[in-house]
């Protein structure tokens, strides 16, 4: 009987990280009466964005993080968003700011992200923070989904050096940060767009496949190199209403060495890393406030 792939379930490492984050948040409240706060901005009424926001509500409650939700109409322009973000940058109760994707296509995401104070960039996608990640500099908050993806990969293969990693899809918050993270581990990184003329051939050459925003179950089992490590960060509506990933899991299980399932794979761990980002930001602000008090 052929050996089936290992399912990379992020729930167990997420539970351990949530325990750590919850303890750190409690320590902040006890020391400064200051609860870590995350502001999430949702523009428009995309049902997938609402689903992701509901997951963040549950994660924030579990981590002891206060969630500030800001719902804006789909037609909100960049100037209005900049005013809102400016107020959140100045709000001492907000330690992290995040735009909930997907956003309306007309919205200038780059401009919206640039308005966030880099110290409050919970998603790690501010141009300053992303640039530091690419040049190997000090980064306060690594984007949470790529960080979870790397953690799951390293749980199966401690040394990625010499392996070929293929990044597929149109989710920049996942795909772009994975480039420096994997390259730093010694992997050779290849990018392929959703409209690549022959993505199957690229997959067949890859030891590692990371997909986000490539299309519902578009990656079939015969696309994969035998023994590949597969991170499925896609989330698409399935035929029966339940979410499915970018990879056809039933087929991939017979080919891959390990695969993260959808749902339940990378998602729980990514949420835990998001809350960890917020708590670390709150800790930094507390240290800064203490230093200023001493200097006075």
Give the count of helical stretches: 10
Question: What is the C-alpha radius of gyration, as a whole number of Å?
Answer: 19 Å
Question: What is the fold named in CATH at topology level of the largest domain?
Answer: Rossmann fold
Quaternary status: single chain
Kindly report how far apart the N and C termini lie.
72 Å
Structural class: alpha/beta
Counting DSSP E segments of at least 2 residues, the number of strands comes to: 11
Give the tally of structural domains. 2
Q: From the 3D coordinates, which CATH architecture of the largest domain would you assign?
A: 3-Layer(aba) Sandwich
Stretches where pLDDT is under 50 for at least 5 consecutive residues are: none
User: What's the name of the CATH homologous superfamily of the largest domain?
Assistant: NAD(P)-binding Rossmann-like Domain
The dominant shape is: globular
> Sheet with the most strands?
6 strands, parallel
As a percent range, the share of strand residues is 5-15%
Widest sheet: strand order? 1-11-8-7-5-6
Mean pLDDT: 91
């Amino acid at each position: 009987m052929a050996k089936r792939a290992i399912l990379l379930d992020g729930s167990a490492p997420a539970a351990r990280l949530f325990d750590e984050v919850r303890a750190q948040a409690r320590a902040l409240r006890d020391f400064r009466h200051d609860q870590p706060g995350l502001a999430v901005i949702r523009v428009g009424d995309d049902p997938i964005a609402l689903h992701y926001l509901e997951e963040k509500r549950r994660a924030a409650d579990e981590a002891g993080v206060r969630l500030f939700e800001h719902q804006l109409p789909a037609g909100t322009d960049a100037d209005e968003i900049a005013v809102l973000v400016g107020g959140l940058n100045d709000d001492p109760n907000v330690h992290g700011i995040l735009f909930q994707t997907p956003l309306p296509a007309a919205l200038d995401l780059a401009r919206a992200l640039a308005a966030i104070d880099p110290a409050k960039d919970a998603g790690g996608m501010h141009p300053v923070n992303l640039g530091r990640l690419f040049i190997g500099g000090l980064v306060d908050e690594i984007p949470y989904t790529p960080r979870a993806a790397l953690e799951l990969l390293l749980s199966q293969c401690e040394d990625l050096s010499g392996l070929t990693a293929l990044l597929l899809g149109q989710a920049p918050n996942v795909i772009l940060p994975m480039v420096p993270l994997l390259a730093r581990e010694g992997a050779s990184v290849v990018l392929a767009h959703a409209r690549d003329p022959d993505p199957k051939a690229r997959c067949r050459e890859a030891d590692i496949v990371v997909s986000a925003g490539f299309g519902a179950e578009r990656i079939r089992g015969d696309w994969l190199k035998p023994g590949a490590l597969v991170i499925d960060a896609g989330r698409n509506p399935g035929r029966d209403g339940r979410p499915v990933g970018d990879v056809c899991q039933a087929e991939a299980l017979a080919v891959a060495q390990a695969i993260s399932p959808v749902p339940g794979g990378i998602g729980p761990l990514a949420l835990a890393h998001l809350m960890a980002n917020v708590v670390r930001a709150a800790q930094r602000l507390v240290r800064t406030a203490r230093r200023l008090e001493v200097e006075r």
